């Protein structure tokens, strides 16, 4: 799977592997572009540089938490918060049909980016063939946000 985090607006080194110490992660994100994006203490959101749909955003936690395989139950609130931010950004960009959206994560090792990032795509009905394949729900390389939350909730606290 191709690298899909924007390389331009983000000042962080996303090539670091997930075992790198969290302190070494550069939190500063520079956000640009015509769309509404946001950054707060916990979560940042920006446009994907290779949009797979008219609206395609990436929601990332500011703190480095690894990828969705390294998450567990305690990360459920974070994942939910990321989904909320994604919905908020869609609505602020006038996407009103929240049934025609896709929220999901690339499942390792099919994503070369080790920093957890939620893909938010809309409208699904306008996604091309390749995008549908790349962001296919519940394939073995892409997991829907809802499903990840369910999966994490069923995990034990300590794995
Ligand atoms: Zn991805």
From TrEMBL:
UniProt keyword Oxidoreductase present: no
Residue numbers annotated as active site: 117
Cross-referenced Pfam families: DcpS_C
InterPro entries in the record: Histidine_triad_HIT, HIT-like, HIT-like_sf
Record keywords: Hydrolase, Nucleotide-binding
Keyword match Nucleotide-binding: yes
Sequence motif Histidine triad motif, location on chain: 115-119
GO molecular function: hydrolase activity; nucleotide binding
Domain HIT span(s) in chain numbering: 17-132
Reaction(s) the record says it catalyses: adenosine 5'-phosphoramidate + H2O = NH4(+) + AMP
Segments of this protein annotated with the region Disordered: 1-21
PANTHER family xrefs: ADENOSINE 5'-MONOPHOSPHORAMIDASE HINT3, APRATAXIN-RELATED
Family statement drawn from the similarity comment of this UniProt entry: Belongs to the HINT family.
Stated name of the protein: Adenosine 5'-monophosphoramidase HINT3
Protein source organism: Fundulus heteroclitus
Lineage of origin: Eukaryota, Metazoa, Chordata, Craniata, Vertebrata
């Amino acid at each position: 799977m191709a690298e899909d985090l924007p390389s331009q607006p983000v000042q962080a080194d996303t090539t670091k592997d997930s075992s790198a110490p969290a302190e070494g992660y550069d939190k500063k994100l520079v956000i640009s572009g015509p769309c509404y994006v946001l950054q707060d203490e916990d979560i940042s959101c920006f446009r994907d540089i290779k949009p797979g749909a008219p609206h395609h955003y990436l929601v990332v936690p500011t703190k480095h938490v690894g990828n969705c395989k390294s998450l567990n139950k305690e990360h459920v609130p974070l994942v939910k918060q990321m989904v909320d931010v994604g919905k908020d950004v869609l609505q602020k960009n006038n996407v009103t049909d929240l049934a025609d959206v896709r929220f999901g994560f690339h499942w390792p090792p099919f994503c070369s980016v080790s920093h957890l990032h939620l893909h938010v795509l809309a409208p699904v009905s306008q996604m091309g063939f390749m995008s549908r394949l790349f962001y296919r729900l519940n394939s073995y390389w892409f997991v829907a946000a809802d499903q990840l939350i369910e999966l994490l909730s069923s995990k034990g606290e300590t794995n």
